[in-house]
Amino acid sequence: MTLDFDxxxxxxxxxxxxxxxxxxxxxxxxxxxxxxxxxxxxxVIVLKARQLGISTLIRSWFFYQSYYDVEPRSYGVIAHTxxxxxxxxxxxxxxxxxxxxxxxxxxxxxxxxxMVFEDSKASLRSFTASSKGGxxxxxxDGVHLxxxxxxxxxxxxxxxxxxxxxxxQIIIESTPNEMGDKFYKLIMENLAAEDPEWKVVxxxxxxxxxxxxxxxPTFELRKEEEIIxxxxxxxxxxxYWRRKQIATLGKDKFxxxxxxxxxxxxxxSGTPYFSPESLEAIEPMPNPRGDLKTYSNVDFNHDYVMGxxxxxxxxxxxxxxxxxxxxxxxVVCQYWSxxxxxxKFAEIIWAEGLKWNNxxxxxxxxxxxxxxxxxxxxxxxxKLWKNKKGKFFYTNNHTxxxxxxxxxxxxxxxxxxxxxxxxxxxxxxxxYDKGKPVHPRNGHDDIVISLALAYYVIKDLPFEYETSIGNxxxxxxxxxxxxxxxxxxxxxxxRGGDGKGGYK
Length: 504
What we know:
By secondary structure, this protein is of the alpha/beta class. It contains 18 helices and 19 strands. The protein has an eight-stranded mixed beta sheet, sandwiched between helices. A hairpin with a 5-residue loop joins strand 6 and strand 7. It is elongated and about 85 Å long. The chain starts with a helix and ends in a 16-residue tail after the last helix. The model is unreliable at 462-504 (pLDDT under 50).
């Protein structure tokens, strides 16, 4: 009688790290979800937090396949190191040796890298990714690429493996390593695709039932933790576990090993453009539902600037704008959507611009930005930004670094007090590449561009505002900026301590 996989897996024994002994396999939710994926998809990519038992579950799946096979098929696992290969292969022996006696089959061949069943000659094999040509000498009928992100040459290895595996099942599984590697590109390309070639599965750290710690009586949630708790529906015990892990590992390493989102998994790869310490100083605000996010009320005694980044609105890049209060220098409203056409986006800009006291609008004029500008001019929008030569703004190799450097100055001078948590995440993803700020492949920087455009206009405004703070220099401002008074009124004439007026 052939048992179904759900029943069979519960007859297997694994090493229980909590009990420090062998125990029956009792899958928890992440593993149960993975069981259904394995039964329904032939090309699977798994991005995961550490110690979720996903590689063990995948190994049990191929053991099950070979155990009930009636043909001499071969099922392989490729590990990134020799020790990992040996450890994974040892699971096969544990699985088989601890089955009920009446279910234990005769073994034809059994060594450190191979187990062959006597009746069918079906086999389980293990290799290391660094072995030369190890998988080319025979056909594999199913393969598990474990910790794929740590292979030396992912592109070449995967090309060879795809030729070897043919139409059979291939499971790629790994914790993250580097933004921009083959593992990263496969994930981002298939997440963005309308008809993906690979099934992408992500397992965040909080799916592990043991990742929680009893909270002390004095425990209080921090602002960031309140948002994260609400966003992922976590308990205080999970948040406290997270806090303790960050204290031990540091934030970057925690995000890499225990990500809560795909973006977090890769955020610590490469060299960040914006200082992580400066971004952490920004108070994260929740992300309101809907495309339009309003953070404060209109003050008709204030002026506003709207930075606009335009896309085609066809489900990929986003149409985005950010509105900044010219007096407080804080973001008051934002919009982003990849579902509206440029013409519809122009209507939204027109309506919101008028609402915010006829905000001055700067539109990135590249490509479809011309459509938005054409409509705004046709509707006679009262305040469209132009430079001293009467030209609209174009992003190119010269102006893009200026945009980002100006925004970077605002952030690293800690003049932005709070931002939408999704905007902070997008800022965290911007990396240096050959000395230039770039967003990750298949990532987005649309809302960052809109933000940078708004602050670019503020930088060049030639007039001053009287405020309750008066003529305070930048260093003096920094000392008191976190008070309630200072958060309300950043003066226009703050300028690096030179006292000449204007903001640079």
